[in-house]
Design brief:
Blueprint lengths: L7 E2 L15 H4 L12 E2 L5 E2 L9 E9 L2 E11 L6 E3 L7 E2 L2 E2 L7 H7 E3 L4 H5 L1 E4 L2 E5 L1 E3 L3 E3 L1 E8 L2 E2 L1 E2 L4 E8 L7 E8 L34 E2 L2 E2 L5 E2 L7 E2 L2 E4 L2 E8 L2 E7 L5 E4 L32 E2 L4 E2 L4 E9 L8 E10 L2 E4 L17 H11 L4 H4 L2 H11 L1 E9 L6 H4 L25 H7 L4 E11 L6
Parallel strand pairs: 3-9, 4-33, 27-28
Antiparallel strand pairs: 1-2, 4-5, 5-14, 6-9, 7-8, 10-11, 11-33, 12-13, 14-15, 14-32, 16-32, 17-29, 17-33, 18-24, 18-32, 19-20, 21-22, 23-26, 24-25, 29-30, 30-31
InterPro entries: ConA-like_dom_sf, Glyco_hydro_7, Glyco_hydro_7_sf
Pfam families: Glyco_hydro_7
Family: Belongs to the glycosyl hydrolase 7 (cellulase C) family.
């Protein structure tokens, strides 16, 4: 999850360039770029294709395993999300979006905007601080060259124009993480969203960019800050953000199931399934906005397992059992009821490997929840919601079975780094919500101060922050780690 906004470009110089109650940067899960120069103009993701900058996808190798030590390397690549890209006229280099406002002469409505505006290629390392080396992807939080970029979100590609599609039922997903350089208030996220394989090109004729340019994003927060949804600009009803000069929200949201494998910084981590009853553009009550949070088509809270929140406050962090001061391996297993790929998803297990040692997930230490529990099941989620006093939207939206259905339909791998303009990341690493006492079950989620995480602070103090995802593997349960 992450909030996504567009970059700011120099005019005519186009070459520059809850249960968990989280605001999902999903879209609210990722904050985008801000490029600074004499004249500052914001730009966004779109659906036509520009020709100023060639789109060259950084390569990233992954592995498919059949048994421990028996893995085949696959050459893949990553692509930057469309919302971070420069959007300009198809006939020139005038921006279609300035600051946090659409140019109504170019974008009087969503369909016309899609015809008038082009999405250009990206300078991955120079502008966005995105680099790859072999099987490793590094995302820098802030990159400064001729401009200043904040955060990023990328997807794994199978080919130049298609996302890699994953179905993890009765399989496991493994990766290495180095988040030693991610302080309070930041989120180095790895997750899956039920996005279309081609980015929506086949379904929506006005989308000419597709997966090659990172289109089609959606998640369980039904984000409204996505600039183009279903091949049309989300300009109708657009309201500029009151606390972010480059962001805003339109009438429509973009909803789909989301499996958060990893939302974390050096102080806290959580994994969280978010089922939805549909995957679509939303409007009004179906988006689950405001007071209708639990009436929409997606489970925005999810059912999270955060070791600190579940009562073990010495399990994950600097110098702890899982020591976040150095790299470690994260293993997530998706167990089905009959141990087949066609069975019903019934459990999501977590393991860690560090310094050659396999580390079992922490146990729950919360009165009212079975102390032997160390994984996510429907029973765990129902009990957790009751004990924490949370609404069980997870069960209402289909629980683990619905999450399994989303995988069976196919999901896309997302990796990002972002800060949080909605709730300062307190839902991940501090006490949240702030109107409850930290001693109440489920409120304490990490050791970070409730004053931490303000974007103005972290963008200043943590400008050199970064996260490294590497050694991605998939395969049958027990095949991806020793």
């Amino acid at each position: 999850m992450q909030s996504s906004v567009g970059c700011i470009e120099v005019l005519h110089q186009p070459g520059l360039a809850t249960s968990i109650l989280k605001p999902h940067p999903p879209s609210e899960m990722f904050r985008a770029a801000t490029l600074i120069a004499f004249t500052l103009l914001a730009v966004v993701g779109a659906q036509q294709v520009g020709t100023n900058t060639a789109e060259t996808h950084p390569s990233l190798s992954v592995q498919e395993c059949t048994a421990p030590g028996s893995c085949t390397t696959q050459q893949r690549s990553i692509v930057l999300d469309a919302n971070w890209r420069w959007l300009h006229t198809t006939t020139g280099y005038d921006n279609c979006y300035t600051g946090n406002t659409w140019d109504t002469s170019l974008c009087p409505d969503g369909a016309t905007c899609a015809q008038n505006c082009a999405l250009d290629g990206a300078d991955y390392s120079g502008t966005y601080g995105i680099t790859t080396s072999g099987n490793a992807l590094t995302l820098k939080f802030i990159t400064e060259s001729q401009q200043k970029n904040i955060g990023s979100r990328v997807y794994l590609l199978e080919s130049e124009s298609s996302y890699q599609i994953f179905n993890l039922k009765n399989k496991e997903f493994t990766f290495d993480i180095d988040m030693s350089n991610l302080p309070c208030g930041l989120n180095g996220a790895l997750y899956f969203s039920q996005m279309p394989k081609d980015g929506g090109m086949a379904q929506f004729s006005t989308n000419k960019a597709g997966a090659k340019y990172g289109t089609g994003y959606c998640d369980s927060q039904c984000p409204h800050d996505i600039k183009f949804i279903n091949g049309e600009a989300n300009s109708d009803g657009w309201e500029p953000s009151p606390n972010d000069s480059n962001a805003g929200k339109g009438t429509y949201g973009s909803c789909c199931a989301e499996m958060d494998i990893w939302e974390a910084n050096s102080m806290a981590a959580a994994y969280t399934p978010h089922p939805c009853t549909a995957s679509q553009r939303c409007e009004g009550t179906e988006c689950g906005d405001g007071d209708n949070r639990y009436g929409g088509i997606c489970d925005k809270d999810g059912c999270d397992f955060n070791s600190f929140r579940m009562g073990d406050q010495t399990f994950l962090g600097p110098g702890m059992t899982v020591d976040t001061k150095s790299k470690f391996t994260v293993v997530t297993q998706f167990v089905t009821s009959d141990n087949t790929t066609s069975g019903t998803l019934s459990e999501i297990r977590r393991l860690y490997v560090q310094n050659g040692q396999v580390i079992q997930n922490s146990k729950v230490n919360i009165p009212g929840i079975d102390a032997s529990v160390d994984s996510i099941t429907d029973d765990f989620c129902s009990t957790q919601k009751t004990v924490f006093g949370d609404t069980n939207s997870f069960q209402a939206k289909g629980g683990l079975a619905a999450m399994g259905d989303a995988f069976e339909a196919g999901m896309v791998l997302v990796m990002s780094v972002w800060d949080d303009h909605e709730a300062n990341m307190l839902w991940l690493d501090s006490n949240y919500p702030l109107d409850k006492d930290a001693s109440e079950p489920g409120v304490a989620r990490g050791t970070c101060s409730t004053d931490s995480g303000k974007p103005t602070d972290v963008e200043s103090s943590a400008a050199s922050a970064s996260v490294v995802f590497s050694n991605i593997k998939t395969g049958p349960i027990g095949s991806t780690f020793a």
